[in-house]
Design a protein that fits this description.
Elements lengths: L2 E3 L14 E4 L13 H4 L2 E4 L3 E8 L5 E8 L3 H17 L8 E6 L3 E7 L6 H10 L9 H21 L2 E2 L8 E3 L5 E3 L6 E2 L19 H4 L7 H16 L13 H10 L4 H5 L4 H10 L10 H8 L6 H8 L6 H25 L72
Antiparallel strand pairs: 1-2, 2-4, 3-4, 4-5, 5-7, 6-7, 8-11, 9-10
Helix pairs in contact: 4-6, 4-10, 6-9
């Protein structure tokens, strides 16, 4: 178990948290967990620049991720502070991982970030390759929703902050609590000035690098759009557009395919709508000037506005005359009266209690009334008729019981004397 005491040294803004963070074991249902000793100690991931730990605040029940970056030299220190600055500028968007605190201590930089329990998007794509429900790609609505969320995050970075991510890939996209995608890892991000529109540094992941990056040309925001097109293709085909047989080819082969080859669009047309395939092709155009912008993607993926005529017809009620209003009021009153009468009929009624008259006291001198004389019926003069009982039928084991038609019938009564 490790403890991280939140400090306020070496960062550009004061931390939002106070106290101590303690590492906790990685949950068993976390995607990609292999139950190693490092995961039991709270290590949720590691990379070239550092490690990421799952922690819990001692005074709260919330979970946070602490990214520990080693600062070997001044260059690493500048790059780490650049990532912190970019995260502070972009953490106000719902589709970008939030930054809660950051400090430097003993040649290491600690960044407290939002915890995303869904893991990374590359783990989710790998899960889809083996799941029988996703063997032909993810559903259309899920792909559209993911592309829309990532387009909104890129539009916020490109147009509001003028930041190029430069390392957009499924491993740097996290899944939040409600399945929301969160853009993360701004270690290679570049903030462009008001008079600077291009980058020249060769960086990024080979499978998601744009043609201008592969050929060493200056690039700009269109490089992130190219990477988003590769992710959109991978969500539908469950494989990269530049990997044919599932195995990653050498770097030189990947660069040659990105610059000259064309993805297999016919495979996507068999499973997905034509408009979604065209949108992905728009993001993967070789010419960066003809490629879509993030704001255009957001506009195409969002719902159109409702016309003013429809809004007026729904909200505004036309003026009616006073006579019509009086008639409507009478109709509503009659309807309420009918409903009230039905409710009264349906309700069970309890009989009202009947008041019993008070007993009249009898005078003590009055004699008690004599009991009534019972009336005795006169004896009948008609002769009595004797009906003999049916004789007993002996039980025979060999002979089955008689049917209803064979049962014994009583003899007829003798005629009465006249």
């Amino acid at each position: 178990m490790q403890r991280f005491r939140i400090r306020d040294t070496g960062v550009t803004a004061p931390p939002k948290l106070q106290g101590t963070l303690v590492t906790v074991p990685v949950p068993s249902n976390y995607p990609g967990r292999v139950n190693t000793a490092r995961e039991k100690e709270g290590e949720i991931g590691r990379g070239v620049f550092g490690k990421v730990y799952l922690t819990k605040h001692q005074g709260m029940a919330a979970l946070y991720c602490v990214k520990v970056v080693s600062l070997a030299n001044d260059v690493d220190h500048e790059d780490a502070l650049q990532e912190v600055k970019v995260m502070q500028d972009t953490c106000d968007h719902p589709n970008i991982v939030s930054l809660h605190a950051a400090w430097s201590y003993r040649a290491t930089l600690h960044i407290v970030m939002e915890y995303c329990p869904g893991g990374s998007l590359d783990k989710f794509i790998a899960f889809g390759r083996t799941h029988p429900d996703y063997k032909h790609g993810f559903p259309v609505l899920k792909v559209l929703h993911y592309v829309q969320e990532l387009s909104g995050a890129l539009a916020y970075c490109h147009h509001s902050l003028r930041i190029v991510h430069r390392d957009l890939k499924p491993a740097n996209i996290l899944i939040g609590w409600l399945g929301t995608l969160k853009l993360a890892d701004f270690g290679m991000a570049k903030a462009l000035g008001p008079h600077t529109d291009m980058c020249a540094t060769y960086c990024g992941s080979p499978l998601y690098m744009s043609p201008e990056q592969c050929t060493g040309k200056p690039y700009s925001f269109a490089a992130d759009i190219w990477a988003l097109g590769c992710i959109s293709y991978e969500l539908m085909a469950l494989t990269s557009p530049w990997v044919g047989d599932g195995r990653v080819p050498p770097h030189a082969t990947i660069v040659d395919r990105i610059v000259h080859a064309t993805p297999a669009w016919a495979l996507l047309r068999e499973r997905y709508p034509e408009n979604l395939v065209k949108l992905t092709r728009w993001m993967l155009l070789k010419d960066a000037s003809e490629r879509a912008m993030a704001s255009e993607l957001v506009q195409h993926l969002s719902l159109p506005e409702v016309p003013a005529v429809c809004e007026a017809s729904v909200v505004v009620r036309p003026r009616v005359s006073d006579e019509v209003e009086k008639l409507e009021a009478r109709v509503r009153a009659a309807a309420c009266q009918i409903q009230r009468s039905y409710r009264e009929r349906a309700a069970p009624r309890t009989p009202a209690p009947v008041a019993q008259p008070a007993p009249v006291p009898m005078a003590p001198s009055a004699p008690a009334p004599a009991p009534p004389v019972p009336l005795v019926a006169p004896p009948s003069t008609a002769p009595s008729v004797h009906v003999p009982h049916p004789p007993m039928i002996p039980f025979d084991k060999e002979r089955p019981p008689p049917y209803r038609a064979e049962r014994y019938r009583a003899p007829a009564a003798p005629p009465q004397p006249t």
